[in-house]
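Re: iron/sulfur cluster structure - here you go.
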Amino acid sequence: MICEKEKCTGCFGCFNICPKNAIEMCKDEYGNVFPQIVKEKCINCGLCKKVCPQLKEKLDFKKPIKAFAMYNKEPNKRKESTSGGAATTFYEYILNNKGIIYGASNLFGLNEFKFIRIDNKLDLYKVKGSKYVHCYINNTMKQVKEDLLADKKVLFIGTPCQVSGLKSFLMKDYQNLITIDIICHGVPSQKLLFDEISNQGIDYRDVYYVSFRDDKLFNFKLLDNNRKILLEKKSYNVDYYNHFLKGDIYRENCYDCKYAKRERISDITIGDFWGLDKNSKIYDDEKKGISVVLPNTQKGLDLIKSISSECNIEERTIDEACKTNGQLNRPMKKSKEYNTYRKYYPKLGYRKTMKKMLSIKSKVKKILKRILKKV
Ligand SMILES: Cc1cc2nc3c(=O)[nH]c(=O)nc-3n(C[C@H](O)[C@H](O)[C@H](O)COP(=O)(O)OP(=O)(O)OC[C@H]3O[C@@H](n4cnc5c(N)ncnc54)[C@H](O)[C@@H]3O)c2cc1C
Ligand code: SF4
Ligand code: SF4
Ligand code: SF4
């Protein structure tokens, strides 16, 4: 291992830096990916350890300079996004200025959730929306570096640990790079999601698109490549989604996440503005989606100023922004169900483990539902 297994975030930094392609990202029994060094190819240059953010004593954390509440003025753009459409607004600005964007895609046609590079607005739909699963960076860090060296403006949006991996891989600041991190409480493995899809009686090879949020509602939707709906269920009727929201099935390192605090790693941090005071002049309905936007550098603040005509935006206090957003304060705690998942999943598989993880309350609810159906 490069860093201890329990600490590894799966950021792909080491994978991208290795000059000999001696690192493979392999899955463990939970489906979480970790680097493995192919000894025959390794020349012991030490670069992988040098870039690993989990081995660094100090990371470049910055305090937010200001806090904003915002949403995109165009109702459709707001509707298609998870929060207030901050990500789309920034992506569009960069693309309009001949830049390149990198984001996580839920186009599932290749049976993998992964980061992609986009250079035109027609493809922007591919990176819209939250994907509640660990998305792989693969070799996109190398592509980012190529774009930066070619003097292109680059915007990268990912989880804080992914941004940290990218910055560490790049080894120096680039004026033409903007990084944005999403507030993040943790990610489950892709294997768990594939298991859930199979458990729903659907062949994952038939799924082209996975949607986790539908007009802000926590709905789980699977579509084929003709946009035909294969499955549509509420989050609480889908084990995977239920346990994702409760924090029962994340990668082990997420429960000790060093990025879940006010001090941030990127130029800008975005998330949901939970608890925006109703006196705010842009407050309408939290259910329509309001983004919290925290500039952590002057570069970030300048970008926010550049997009301000596209959105309804208001400066708020940093305390208000952080107060009700758990992961701006601390990482998620391990639950009792998490321990059940860790103990049984490798031995019993998905379906039986999910049954074991049902709380007594849910078990009673299920039995009552069955009885009521018979009456
Ligand atoms: C796993 C996860 C946990 C989250 N937890 C919280 C939380 O606790 N509190 C909170 O306020 N907000 C949380 N969010 C963020 C929130 O759901 C929105 O993603 C965020 O506010 C951006 O929304 P938007 O409307 O600006 O744009 P959107 O269009 O929704 O943003 C999409 C962009 O976010 C990035 N992204 C989406 N999913 C992933 C992923 N799995 N890995 C890496 N990057 C991704 C992509 O690059 C993508 O282009 C979480 C998101 C994820 C994916
Ligand atoms: S020590 Fe160097 S060659 Fe070996 S795996 Fe790490 S980066 Fe690759
Ligand atoms: S660089 Fe990232 S993927 Fe590699 S060992 Fe460190 S945390 Fe894990
Ligand atoms: S909780 Fe922390 S370690 Fe886990 S994916 Fe999010 S940022 Fe990375």
